[in-house]
Amino acid sequence: MKKREDMMNKYKKYFIVFLCASLVEAVFIIILMAQRGDIRKSGNKHRQENVSEAVGLLRPTDLLLNPQVQLRHGGPLESRGQLQTSIPTQQIPHQPEQSKTQQILELTEKSSERSVRAIVSAVFGTLGRQSEPNELSKEKLADSMHLLFDKEASLNKRRQAAWTLAKNGSTETLVELGKAFSDSDTPIYLKAAIVEALGYSPNPLGKKLILTAIKDDNDVVVRAAIRGLSVIGDEEAVSKLSDIVVSTDASSTVISEAALGLGKINSPDAYDTLVSAYYSAIPENADFREDIIAALGQRDISETSQFFQKILDENTANPSLRLAVIEAVEDAKGDISSFLLNNLHDKDSEVRAAACWALATASESGLITKELQELLLTEEDAGVRKRLYQALGNQESADIDITAQIIFKETDSDARLTGYDFLAKKLVSSKNADLMEWFDKAAVPELQEVALTADKSGSRLGAVITLKRANTIESHRALEEILAKSADTEVVKVIEGTKNKQ
Amino acid sequence: MRNKSVQECIKQGWMVLLLVIFFTPIQRAFAESYYFDFEGDLHVWDLSGSYNGDFSGGNMSYVLTQDAQGKLTGSGSASYSAYSMDVNMSFGITGSVKQTSGLAIVKMSFKFTGTVSNGLDTIEFTGKATVKVEIDSVAGTMNGIIRLRVSVKGYGSESFEEPYSIELPADMDGTFSLELNVVEENRELLGTGELILSNGDTYHFSITGKYNYRTDKSKFKLTEDVSSKGSKLKIIIDESDGVITSINGKILGQKIKGIYD
Q1: Is the CB of A111 less than 8 angstroms away from the CB of B154?
Q2: What is the ipTM of this complex?
Q3: Running DSSP on this structure, what letter comes out for residue A40?
């Protein structure tokens, strides 16, 4: 225990160092931006003063929701640019070329990179038991505000900035977000990020902007507003979303999003609305019914299992509706394994396959290795067997030796390749030398052949992934050979990526 | 009297023949090939490919494969070094691509395990990232939200969400083409079809159908073969101009619907 505390203290120290270093770098970023003429300190001050002045004259919602008001009482951002006074670039001391700060600026360019940072931040945050502060530092606020309006910046950066600002929640910040939203030049997906993020804002003005955005002409924005409203999830949100679900004017994608939004809200009213919408829909409106099923699928399985089972039992002549039920359960909260196990014996092979896939992707997939292995022995449909191997891959205690015997006898090539992938994942923890030898002799040559000759890029890449996972001497040799012979640039890229890491 | 009845018979015979000719459908000698390019509002997406991001201090890369039912599987890894700490993680990916009313939604789940090390101590963490994005066919990007949950054994967990964008694979723009080769056999239309995606992947179908001489339209039903399991399409072609008037079905787990009457 003491050792753990010591360790925790040690990491807390590292975390503090990390925070300090981040702060120093943030300052560098601002200096660098100022050098590029991107940030105008006094301009920001003026902007805040203008906003404060405007807020004093009008209700903040007027500013948020009516761009014309903004024009009269402060002018659009572009015209207010003349109030801003730039720091002359010659007054900024010369920064070293390609500084760490610049590298960090580049680092935030791509979202895939950002997500790693996000994970890392979360890890550090977890170690230090520190959540991201709700109140942004002035520098971070200024930086995000600058990015929000920077038309030269990538859409990704601007969406990130909008998200950060919306969560900040101050009235002044929301006013600026409202202006960005009302600007006709603002890209649709930035508008969408603004209204969705406002759902996380603690400021009630956020909700008002969302309720305006929900009437927007563009469905991308409307759907984002619906998602924002579902995050708020209060009585008004339930009422608004319920209206959209039963609306005859809204587009099918908007109705579908509203149903999904209701499904996320933990309220009996939301549940009742969806169930009643399902039963009042005419059977011909199959897509709508499937949307409702998907919406309810997000709730805890203990709340929906009876409703879903009824649909499965009563709609034997409607395979797509039954399939929709199983697919919806993929997103359900709680232990879905017992519900899905019941449907692994369904007459419809598509339903069985979908149930296996749901088990393959579930967070809580139960301890059902034995049942899955038994089904593998009797299942006649190769497509279902393929999904059974994937479901077994999500079982923590899958007995690799028993399953391996089934896989090596598998007659369908697609199912067999999926089985090999299951084996490759588990080989690392297996101590069975015979099995490894068997894999090298039987699976590796077949995987190599598929990686070189399959007509689908997904199949070629899939074979390469399996060989990489297996991590045996033979699989490495096969990867070398594929690298030398393959004409598929994606395959080459993936193998070279592996080699570089080694 | 006999001559008259013969003449009458001939006359009646001609009338019957005319009636038969008039009411008999014109038989088409069917051996048609059709080719259609879909570059407008209908899309089919295959996200198979590698996704990389090298950056200062680290990198992230993953590979996705999409099967004929629109299910995604993959794996990847990421590493990051900062402030004398190394973070390494590897992850498995599952997900799906679905499309309804022209809106394509991609859902992915990254289950990861990793370590944070300062050279002396190493701490393990696990986590899950759930990505839900919609495809912007114009910009060639997928935009949405990523939700992260990271747990460190003995320390607890943190979760948060933020916007997420990914670029589509370079060779994937959602366009596709359809080639149908049909012959007539016993008044039924039979044949084979190929659906070719923008990345060159080809899915094969078998075709059955009927030609309606009254409307001059052919109805085709495309059913799966091994390569296209789970996919099916119904197509109506106006034979007067060879244009598709209706297309409806499911390809790679994505619903396709277009009416052009």
Answers
A1: no
A2: 0.82
A3: -
- The mean pLDDT value for A239-260 works out to 95
Residues of B in contact with A250 (CB under 8 A): none
Of B251, B254, B218, the C-alpha closest to B235 is: B218
Q: Which among B95, B136, B227 has CB closest to A189?
A: B136
Tell me which residue has tokens 């943190």.
Answer: B158
Q: B134: which chain A residues are within 8 Å (Cβ-Cβ)?
A: 220
A30: enclosing H helix or E strand: helix A2-35
The b/e string for A146-179 (b: 16+ C-beta within 10 A; e otherwise) is bbbbeeebebbbbbbbbbbbbbbbbbbbbbbbbb
Looking up tokens 């903040």, which residue turns up? A60
The CB density around residue A283, as the number of other CB atoms within 10 Å, is 9
One-letter amino acid for residue A150 of the chain = D
CA angle in degrees (0–180, nearest 5) for B48-A188-B149:
55
Residue A470: pLDDT band by 50, 70, 90 thresholds? very high
Indicate yes or no: CB of B163 within 8 angstroms of CB of A159.
Answer: yes
Q: How many other C-beta atoms are found inside a 10 Å radius of the C-beta of residue A380?
A: 7
3-class DSSP string for A435-487: HHHHHHHHHHHHHHHHHHHCCCHHHHHHHHHHHHHHCCHHHHHHHHHHHHHCC
* Residue in A113, A192, A193 nearest the CB of B55: A113
Angle at A159 between CA A157 and CA A160, to 5 degrees: 65
Kindly report, residue by residue over B173-222, the tens digit of the pLDDT: 999 999 999 998 877 899 999 999 999 999 999 999 999 989 999 999 99
Task: Write out chain A residues lying below 8 Å of B89, CB-based.
Answer: 119
Question: What is the spatial distance between Cα A471 and Cα A421, in angstroms, rounded to a whole number?
Answer: 12
Element (H, E) at B160: strand B156-167
d(Cα A437, Cα A444) in Å, to the nearest integer? 10
Interchain contact, A132 vs B160, CB within 8 Å: yes
> Averaged over A251-268, what is the pLDDT?
95
- Residue A85 scores a pLDDT above 80: no
Q: How far is A138 from A185, CA to CA, in rounded Å?
A: 27
Contact A379, A388 (CB under 8 A): yes
**What length does chain A have?**
502
Distance between CA atoms of residues B193 and B189, nearest Å: 12
Work out the burial of residue A44: count CB atoms within 10 Å of its CB; fewer than 13 is exposed, 13-18 middle, 19 or more buried: middle
At residue A437, what are phi and psi to the nearest 5 degrees? -65, -40
What radius of gyration, in Å, describes the C-alpha atoms of chain B?
A: 29
Per the document, the length of chain B is 261
pLDDT digits (tens, 9 = 90+) for A123-170: 766 665 444 445 678 888 899 999 999 999 988 889 989 999 998 878
Measured CA to CA, the distance from residue A390 to residue A355 in angstroms comes to 11
Cross-strand bridge partners of residue B58: B55, B80
